[in-house]
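Kindly inspect the following:
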Amino acid sequence: MYKNMLSGYPIQILSSFIVSLGILSFGLGHLWVAPAVPKLLNNDGNGDDTPVQISEDEGSWIASMELITLPISSLSTIFLANHFGTKNVLVFGPAPLVISWILIYFAQNVWYFFIARILVGLSEALFYNCGPVYIGEISDPKIRGVMLFLIPVFFNTGGLLSYYFAYVLSIRTFALLSIIPGVLYFVLFIGMPHSPYYFIIHKKYKDAESTLRFLRGKDYKEGELKLLQEAVETEMQNKVNIKTVLSNQSYRVSFGIVLMTMSFQQLCGSTAVASYLHYIINESYVTHNTETVALIVGIITVCGSLTSTFWIDRKGRRPLILVSLTASGILMLLLAVWFTLKDHGFDLRSYDWLLGTILCVYQFFVNFGIINMSFVLAGELFSTNTKNYGTSTALIGYGVFGFITNKIFLFINSALGMSYNFYGFSFFSFLGVLLFYIYLPETRQKTLVEIQEMLQQKKKKLPKMEMKVVNNESVK
């Protein structure tokens, strides 16, 4: 009975929303460092309900530990996803998060926080390796872009909740409350369907047909399963290793683009600014309450993600990324100039509203494009036999560059000044504009099979192919 009511778009949307609820629980943990690190730096054992006080160096490790674990945890996720399927792995995505909150609740020294952040990194690998793949495989091309955009929207919603409540609540109280979304996700997601790709890979064709009919509903077309089966089995016959990745056109392009997207997401400063938001506000001598400014920035961040959902399948992926990085370059340059003037003795307290505005507009645009697009492209560009390897490789780049930017942020601030961080983020943002303009293809409203056919075109140079695709899309 319920299957008839939910078949088609309803089950695709419901499954995507529940996966995104898991992402929200991760967002709470990921951006907890922004309000928590300043608290722990200034903690004298009496101001909060945790007895732990940390140094600035320990604070940078807490902010970075999650990211440096991604290379190892991502490779582990490949094994798990290949053997048990993306849905089965996603079911247990919140487990490391729940354990991390328990450790934070009972923390007696800084090592509790280090281990908790490592567990957050494991959960990040599970969700970001398997979440985009699962949603990409169950969603119809007409809504796939919007469904994939739910991931950053819910992630930023979790971040918004963390920005405010982790600041106004005690560390232990917030840790206890943050367990709830992960447990709720686990209960709800168990009943969601597997991807038809999972059943085809395991040669369970009746289950694949049943699931595909359920997911497509009245839009199911006879012969669709056969086409999907042929495409998947052809791809699965091609075993993936470094040699095949380097020798195959579509593999090189998809790996390169997603790795580049994940890397520039970090190099433009998105994670560093989000992780040290409260610290940046405190250092700028803004006269308004830190939690008020952080709350507004968090709300604008969610608005950026929501706005992009209305444009991604109307204008395409390329325009959103190019606009996003261009705005990031300009705004990071303005922020660098602000701190340069401050370091040279200029009194900017009368213009503190300007810094808050720059941070808000910056968060809007990076979430409007480059951050959200990482998840969309990871769910679209990889073929069936490379999805798990591809997203894991991309997360390694995300983790390495994220660790570098987070770890050196406080060091650069102490050694050279806050402004040098933002000059660097501005430079890499403009470099990203150039590279994405040249190499990024358009995938709007294309099936996953059509995208692979596009990437496999070898006779035309990629930039020309991309321009043709964009022109075709604009004509439509």
